[in-house]
Design brief:
Elements lengths: L7 H21 L1 H19 L10 E4 L3 E7 L3 H7 L4 H19 L1 H12 L3 H12 L6 H11 L6 H8 L11 H20 L1 H7 L4 H9 L4 H25 L7 H7 L5 H4 L2 H11 L3 H29 L6
Antiparallel strand pairs: 1-2
Helix pairs in contact: 3-16, 4-9, 5-9, 5-10, 6-9, 7-13, 10-12, 12-16, 15-16
């Protein structure tokens, strides 16, 4: 029996032909490649090149020897993190805060988009959109400063209102049971309007004849919303849900760190803030890199699982 032979010359020729076709395509559509070049450069510099430093997870970092010169220690730092008394508390705090944000924050932009789609007055619609978009442009530092002042038991608006009705003011920022709610609700207030833009754009693509046909059949606005708008938004919702699930163990570092204080630390210490304290403040670079690498791998695993579930249960998925 004769075995098929592999012609290496054909392989080289095919690769050369592919390269030539790519160069020809770049020359033909160079304007589009120039348009995407800045974004590609940013992603390359800030997302892919830093991956070179992941090797520190398996080495004992020595500044004098550089990234590649440290002693190889294998999975020592991962085992150290898994055996740490902080491990389960960090996982729980990060997961609960992220999951709470997803459950509360995901449907609200959809509702905002559906409501805006029902407004027929152009001026009123533009005004309301401006009002809900503005908080997105307020800096995190300003948002946290507002929260601290408004919720202060001595000078805050909420504290004064409680005193006015005869209730003792509460130190909301110092109570562990209020931290997650304050974080999530302030996140929704700041970003829900901005996050609704993609849904508004999706709704703008609906054929107006569908609404006309629904009116002829006697459908109310609520029925049009349920039968036309929501089904049209489902593909967009599925894709965004998959992307959000891919960051289930990722919480905004800046806001959590700024809202932290010794009284709420048991529920506010998440993986990102712990990595900062261990890596930057305590100068344990390799240990913090291992923790960050573990966090990234868990997020990627969740993304793959959710994407597979979405692909099997619907026709929408990332790949």
């Amino acid at each position: 029996m004769e075995h098929p032979t592999i012609n290496t010359k054909d392989i080289v020729n095919s690769k050369t032909g592919l390269l030539e076709r790519f160069i020809k395509h770049v020359k033909l559509y160079y304007q589009l490649y120039l348009l995407v070049l800045p974004a590609f450069t940013i992603v390359l510099l800030f997302n892919y090149l830093p991956m070179y430093g992941l090797q520190l997870s398996f080495k004992q970092f020595d500044p004098s020897r550089g990234l590649t010169g440290g002693e190889f220690v294998g999975l020592e730092y991962f085992q150290r993190f898994f055996n740490s008394h902080q491990f389960w508390n960090l996982i729980k705090n990060t997961f609960l805060l992220s999951f709470y944000s997803l459950i509360v924050g995901f449907p609200i932009p959809v509702l905002i988009a559906l409501l805006f789609n029902q407004i027929r007055n152009t001026r009123a619609k533009s005004l309301m959109q401006t009002v809900v978009y503005i908080p997105h442009f307020i800096s995190v530092i300003a948002i946290v400063g507002m929260l601290i002042v408004f919720l202060s038991p001595s000078i805050g608006i909420v504290g004064n209102l409680l005193s006015f009705v005869g209730i003792e003011p509460i130190n909301f920022m110092g109570k562990t049971q209020y931290f997650r709610s304050i974080f999530v609700l302030s996140e929704v207030w700041q970003h829900a309007g901005w996050n609704s833009i993609i849904y508004i754009a999706a709704l703008s693509g609906i054929n107006p004849q569908l609404y006309e046909a629904a009116k002829v059949d006697g459908a109310s606005r609520m029925q049009q919303m349920v039968k036309i708008d929501i089904p049209y938004l489902i593909p967009t919702m599925v894709i965004l849900l998959i992307l959000n699930a891919g960051s289930l163990l990722t919480v905004g570092f800046e806001k959590v760190f700024l809202m932290q204080n010794p009284m709420n630390l048991p529920v506010s210490e998440v993986i990102e803030t712990y990595v900062y304290k261990i890596g930057i403040l305590s100068n344990q670079i390799s240990y913090s890199t291992a923790i960050g690498f573990f966090n990234t791998m868990i997020n990627f695993l969740v993304l793959v699982i959710v994407n597979q579930v979405a692909r099997k249960t619907s026709d929408n998925s990332l790949w």
